[in-house]
Amino acid sequence: MKSGIAVKLAILLAVVGVTAAALTGAYSYGVSRQLLVEASQQSLLAATQVLGRRIDTGLQEVVRNLQILARHPAARSMLRQGDAGSRQQLDELFELMMRANPAYFQIRLISAADFGLERVRVDRQGASFVRVADDDLQEKGHFSYVSETLKQPPGSVYMSRITINHERGVHAGAERPSMQLAMPVEDDKGKPLGVVVINLDVDGMFALLAVDLPADFRLFLANGDGDILLHPDHAKVFGFDRGRRVLIQEEFAATAALVDGRQSRVVFQDVAGSGALQSALLAFVQQPLGPRSEERQLFVGLAQPLSSAREGAQRFGQLILVSVLVLGLLGILVAMLLARLALRPLRQLTDAAQRFGRGEGTSELPVARDDEIGELARSFRQMQQQIGEQMDSLQASQQQLQQLAQYDPLTGLPNRRMLQDRMDLAISRARRHDEQLALLFIDLDNFKDINDGWGHDAGDIVLMEVAHRLRQSVRAVDTVARLGGDEFVILLDVPGSRQDIINIVIKLLEQLSLGIPFQGITLRVGASVGISLFPDDGASPAALLVSADRAMYQVKARGRGGYGFAVLQE
Ligand SMILES: Nc1nc2c(ncn2[C@@H]2O[C@H](COP(=O)(O)OP(=O)(O)OP(=O)(O)O)[C@@H](O)[C@H]2O)c(=O)[nH]1
To answer: Out of 4-18, 40-54, 446-460, which region has the weakest mean confidence (pLDDT)?
Structure first.
């Protein structure tokens, strides 16, 4: 009982508390994880849309630059006359513009005549620029950025598809993803004299546009048909250039809706991971290009690793774990405290029962409570009282039985049994100290006559008075017993000399000879006394009694009313 129920109750309460805290924590963690992923999806989508708009803005910037170049007087002059001054001016202008725009591979002025001969061309070459000499200029009339641009209405811009640049001698732009934007250069009547072409470094442009994105974000780009142009896994880009198309809608099934025009943006989770990607959140948006664009549209995508999207959830999870642990510990402490409090009255009851069992009396009990424990305490108190009463009555009965077993009920004197015990004790003591004992056997004379003459009650009165007088006549250490009928025995402890014994007996006989008043008359009774001595007349109680009894009969035989020693009879 000491701590068994308390510990079990505490454990139960603690388990319930900790489980509740853990479940709440787990639920909150799950919900927060989901909410964080959803929030990340939304912000990823927003970032992708911003990126799409940046592409558009970036292209508009190129268009503005094209307009500057196409309307520049030196461009017209160069196309008409091919003068060195214009050439010099344009070389400088092109280089200046390329210096200001790191994503430009090349700027050219191409004539509408001479099979589209390049007239001015500046190529990027690492950190420097190459102003291509006249001898190295090529005819480009068969390229659509020349032929198509020349067909454009005045002031409009042509945008090519994004391809790998296989043109010869293009310096930095060789074999790199690129896109040409071109605008016609017209004379005063709007007749095209040639075109100005900006060759755009697609990778470079995207690197610039995505420069402020988090480092673990990955960028995707696909053309209007879904061909992948930008992908973390370089093996998947420009598949069509190697004769094996790799499509974004095959790579990510969720983008199919985008490519076939059903949706303009998608966001999804790619748990399995794909190629160089880990499990990630992905967002793709459709970015329309101008009406005269060969591509018509691009698909721009961003991927964020799921681990980074869930970073907050992980921190939250750790926080929850710590909270659950702290709450769990608190729960255990509170549970133990509650269990102790709840079990205090039970412990009180147990203590009370144990004290009562050890006979240490009653102790404080929670009897004032009005609950089940109070009821139990009151029942226990009642039971204690009943047991107490029963114990008292049992003790009284035991005392009564003991009295009956050892005392004569009429006179209250020790009976034969107790006399036997007293004699045993006295004999062993006398033997140890080498002392004497004297046993007086007293039998009333003609007692039957009193019974017969005055009734049994009179006999009882006489017997009681005799007992009283015998008791008064000897010391407290001496034993006066009634053997039964009218027979009494006195055991004198250390009796002194024979004469001392005789003096006591004479005194006894005098006391007994005095009248006993009964219902207005005086009753008289005499007695015969036989005396035996220890150790002379017997070594045991029985032997001493026999000797004294025999001596008493001899007194009776001599005529009653006197005393005699056992030894004297032999
Ligand atoms: N009133 C009363 N009488 C008792 C009691 N016990 C025994 N008696 C009577 O005591 C008497 C004893 O008789 P005895 O000792 O034979 O006769 P006695 O008259 O004393 O004669 P002796 O001893 O020869 O002198 C009997 O009549 C018993 O009935 C008792 O407790 N009360």
So the answer is: 4-18
Choose among 389, 388, 384: nearest CA to 365: 384
**118 contacts 140 by C-beta, under 8 angstroms:** yes
Q: Are residues 191 and 279 in the same domain?
A: yes
Question: Are residues 329 and 443 located together in one domain of the fold?
Answer: no
Q: Would 356 be classed as within a structural domain?
A: no
pLDDT digits (tens, 9 = 90+) for 277-290: 678 888 999 988 87
Ligand 1 site, CB within 6 A? 410, 443-449, 451, 456, 459-460, 463, 485-486, 556, 560
Please state the atom number of ligand 1 nearest to the C-alpha of residue 451.
1
The catalytic residues are 486
Question: For the segment 67-102, what is each residue's pLDDT rounded down to a tens digit?
Answer: 999 999 999 999 999 899 999 999 999 999 999 999
Task: State whether 321 and 228 are in the same domain.
Answer: no
Pair (443, 397) in one structural domain: no
One domain for residues 558 and 416: yes
Distance CA 65, CA 71 (A): 10
Q: Which atom of ligand 1 is nearest to the CA of 444?
A: 20
Counts for the chain of helices (H) and strands (E), in that order: 16, 19
Confidence at residue 562, expressed as pLDDT on a 0 to 100 scale: 95
Separation of alpha carbons 156 and 150, rounded Å:
10
Residues 440 and 541 both lie in one domain? yes
pLDDT at 389 over 80: yes
Q: Which atom of ligand 1 is nearest to the CA of 449?
A: 19
Residue 544 lies in a domain: yes
Taking only the tens place, the pLDDT of each residue in 283-327 is: 999 988 877 788 888 999 988 888 777 777 677 777 878 877 887
Residue 453 tokens read as: 């003459």
pLDDT at residue 450 tops 60: yes
Of 306, 339, 374, which closes a domain?
306
CATH number at residue 291: 3.30.450.20
Q: What tokens does 78 get? A: 């160069």
**What distance in angstroms lies between residue 523's CA and the mean position of ligand 1's atoms?**
15
Q: Any idea which residue has 């025999």 for tokens?
A: 550
The whole-number pLDDT of residue 227 equals: 94
417 in the same domain as 397:
no
Residue 52 within any structural domain of the chain = no
Q: Which long-range contacts (CB under 8 A, 24 or more apart) does 12-19 make?
A: 12/335, 13/331, 13/334, 13/335, 13/338, 13/339, 14/328, 14/331, 14/332, 14/335, 14/336, 17/327, 17/328, 17/331, 17/332, 17/334, 17/335, 18/324, 18/327, 18/328, 18/331, 18/332
Q: Count structural domains, the chain.
A: 4
CA atoms within a 13 Å half-sphere pointing along the CA-CB vector of 187? 10
Which residue range forms the structural domain that includes residue 381? 365-401
